[in-house]
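Convert to structure. Protein one:
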Amino acid sequence: MRLKRKGRRRTDLEDQLAEGGFPAGVGVPSTVLVLLLILLAGFCAVQLREPEASAPQAVVESQQALVESLAKSLAATAEQNVSDLRAAATVTDPASQPADLLAAVNQNQPKWRGLTLAETSTGKPIVTRGEAVAAPADTAVTPVVGQDGQLRMQVSVPLPGDPARMLTAVTFAGIPAAPLDADLQHGLVLANKESQIVDSRGTLPKVDDAAAQSLLASAAAAASAGQTGSYVGEPGDNRAMVVAYAPVGTDLGLALLSVVRAPVTEAGPGRQGLRPALALVIVALVGFGLIRATLVGPVRRLRADVLQVASGNLADRVRLPHSSETRRIAAAVEYCRTKLRGEPKPVVRRRPRLSARVAVALAALGVLAWSGWVMVTVGGGVARVPDSVVSGHRSQVGNAAETISRTVNDGLTDLQSVAGLNGTKDPAALLPVVRELAGQDRFRSVYVVDQSGVVTATSAGRPPLRGINVLPADPGVRLQDTAGRVPVLFAHTVLAGGTYTLVAEFDVDHLSDLLRRAPGRVRLVNSELRTLAATDGFVAFEQIRGDSARRGVTDALSGRTIGRVEGEGRDRSVITARSVDDLPWAVVSEKPVRELSLPGNEVRNGAMLVALIGGLLAVLLFGWHYLVLIRPLRAVAAAGKFTDVIYPQRQDEIGTIACCLEICRQALSDGVSRLGSARRPRGAATEETTQLPRIIVDDPLADPRSRAEV
């Protein structure tokens, strides 16, 4: 290696310092950080690139959530049919005539299109009522296709008290009622294991549309295999087909598919990440040049000059840099050089100078300013919410409201069916069926009360929450009051004779689980805008907060299905609300726009990530240079008064400068002969300490008294 100054070779002192462990490294931080900033610029250009034209991910997710919710509803309805038939069989008298038994069950549960009582072992029918029923299957519920081509659900349960006989019933089954958007050409398809369509609603793709039919076939095959997911077709005519699929239960062998044609959207102008990336490259290069001019370059030049002086070359003057930290050290070395040469004390002219600390701070502030600019301009944008996203949310909320209505009304129907089948029997005879009803997820407790409202011994489930009061004679679903820690929603019906009433309290946690089929924060409220259930933590009967949600509930209770975007800036939310049929309740959903999977949100989140990384690199830039370079350099500059011993503590250019300053300090006291070599202890601090042996000088010719111990 040759010194750049005057083309001199490395001195012996420089070789000694290199052997002592003083490699060059003051320029490493700036080089590493500028490379990281350039990599960040490339990441910014890629992360904020032009989005591909496709259906918004929010539409795909909403359709996926909708089809999963509807599939769960279908499976729950099938299981509920089993519970209903089992409850009806439990409350009937096994000793009654088979025809009378089927008539009683059909009279109190009109949903059964056909009933058959058959022998369990042979499957031979004993008596049949209504539509023809196939032989009892091994499973409790089996989907079958009727002669009219419509889907039926066949349910089989053993007759209580007589397991030799099997009660089998069939009822209509199909896709649950859910709002469909005609603008999206929304369609729902129910397929069997052979990928044959057994039920459909809405708009279906044309038979000659090969691409759409291929997506449907693939989705049906995947759902039949138990998978859940979605397919997005290639955009065409500014629309893209989205097919979401989910299996219906685990043993039914049915697959539910949702098909929409969603408009493709873009997040914003193309290549919007190039401008921030180019700006970051400029900021990085300017900061790199500033640090090189005020810190790296002056330190390296100072190192070369100090080595020359410490090596004994006192002919050349020491260059005075403009950086304040290195200028102080250079002035001290120049003073030492002139003192050793016997020259007059040099006059250091004062010039405008820039501190290396200020330069590093300016470079870091430049990167911070760039991060703030990206965060405000690109990251502060507001995503546009397509109508297809709002429509998807409206369908999900509508399905949640339909599920709540079906759960509550079917619960009341079950009570009325049990009351009709029980007739004038003693209410104690209802204990088996009460236990059967209490085992359903929808109820938390089922019991019989007397005329004064006191709970009798015929009770099952958890302890009742309803207070003791007299119930109206008309059956219905009611809310006890608007006080208490837990809303008490219950259904009731009077038993034959009018003396006792059968009551079933609904499980609020189960209703909250049903509400989770809708997006965002979902709440079930009554006509007074008080919260009855919610998907997150809530206070019972708490008034709805927010004008947007209150307006949505008010409009929904008036009979309209609400789906709109309200709010300003980043506080916008998709408000969706729908009333619950036959009940003075409404389901309202609030989903912040910033949480939707929209192209605009993806770009904004990418910009926030890039800005955050830029801020971290700015802090690293300042902290690394200040702690590793500037503070040690300032400490060496403070020791340049030659009043105390200077201890080199670093293995870089700054350590070399400190070592040379110590040589100059020793030369000022010991003379010029001290220059040119570095006094360094040999060995390592970890080596074992040994004791030198005692040497005894024994000269036989000398007087014994002259023996000396060395």
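Protein two, convert as well:
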Amino acid sequence: MKQFFKTTFACVLGVFIAGTILIWIGVIMTIGIISVSTVPTYKEKNNTILYLNLKGELNERSKENPLSLLYSEKSEMSLGLDDILKAIKTAKDNDNIKGIYIEANGLFAGYASIDEIRQALLDFKKSGKFILAYGDQYLQKEYYLASVADSIFLNPVGMLDFRGLSASPIFYKNTLDKIGVDMQIFRVGTFKSAVEPYTTTHMSPANREQTEVYLHSIWEHVVQGISQARKLSPRQLNACADSLMLFREETRAVQAGLIDALAYRPQMKQKLARMAHADKYEDLTLASVTEIAGLPRKAPSAQDIIAVVYADGEIDTSPNDGINSRKLVAELDKIGQDAAIKGVVLRVNSPGGSAFGSEQLWEAVDRLKQLKPVAVSMGDYAASGGYYLSCGAHRIFADAATLTGSIGIFGMVPDASALLTDKIGLTFDEAKTNRYGNFPAIHRAMTPGEKAMMQAYVERGYDLFVKRCAQGRGKTADDIRKIAEGRVWTGADAVKLGLADQIGTLGDAITWVAGRAHTPDYRRVDYPVKKTIYEELLSELGSYSRTSLEKWILGDRYRPLDILKQIQHLDPVQARAEIGHID
């Protein structure tokens, strides 16, 4: 038997070493391929059309994707809002680019991000160049974006999704009950709904109220935008939404004025050629967002810098993704000491996260604004901790569809005693030197004394959050409490309530900061610096190899390990908003 285990261990070790060697051989080979393949393939040509392929997930920033070299087609599998805005601006000013062709292929994005692109397209139209849009199927957000086009086309057997907005949060209470886990909740704020999935099976009246209010606010904004672009009244548009256009005859969309004409792709090619004044479609060059955004530009001669700092994702929730408060604080401090940087725009797209991390970021922004102008540009979300780090800026810009506010705090401590003891059969004993020596412990429920102290701690965190908002917005704590309680607001309502200063884009925020800094001649620099394609490759392969090894060893037990890893890095006290997917 001893020899059997030795042989088995040797085999496993051999497989592991061989696998590791193969992985690193793959790394070396891939780097070699990249070094040969990353020579620019696109050169500026006449009769070019910017091809805005609405496909995949829209992120705040693009990143180098090593796996894109394996794709044979030009596709924007993971679009960056920064590259899209840059490409549209380049297309507006470049005489070789005759227009923009938008194609709906399944884009996952928030309405505030869609608005940023719409505003850029509306600005592009001032050049007199054309915008055409085509889709086999239009998702609702894609149609909202495409509505700015000069003409919108739909496949003769295609579909148009236009039905109004909804939010459908998922609740875990029944699942947790079945596995024997009770989430012990501590919160401040009637509207702080982030804990509801763990405590109930449906929305509370307060959560339903705030959800319906922000859904109607966003829908009103969307309808108004389409109304202006398509010359249709809000009443007509709502009638179309209530008719469930998705399953109506395609000609109905044309008759309603939502679509200009039905066309197959070959007809669209002919249309594009005519619009670009080319003899035939083959004379055109359809260039992707990445290609146009990557066109060489004249290096700005200005020495002064306006910094755009991205704060994207949850705060201190994951060690690899989202906002790492310690790193971002260090970045902001470094920017504060750079004399060439005259002003800062903090681009915030975050539902919040760690209350502790949010406070560190607030304090860093407060230090920074003593040195230079600081504005916040809000993306799809700047809620809870995302608002916490924003509220101290000199000026806050939001999109009408931004979800913000959610000024509230909560804490969660799991009690897994039913799972561990009743279901699995584990028993626990203890020895300790002091009364609370084994706190916290997931194998038992918290005592009344522990719960009281935890609630008091959460309430102190809420009081500090309210104080920070009051300081940043020039209001009293009582003023903030009236609109706090964890309630989520749209950007449009946030401006009315004084939580934000004005509706505007990232570009508007940059312009304001430059004016506040008295710096009319400047160049923009984005932070943090993006990873190179090599750094992305090594990071992804390193993560992939670790994950693969864990899955191989643990098999079906990998998922519980993954959950435990996430819990390990989760601050028990959160300034975070849980908002159902808006569709």
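Residues 34-40, 69-76 have pLDDT under 50 and may be disordered. Residues 83 and 522 are 20 Å apart (CA to CA).
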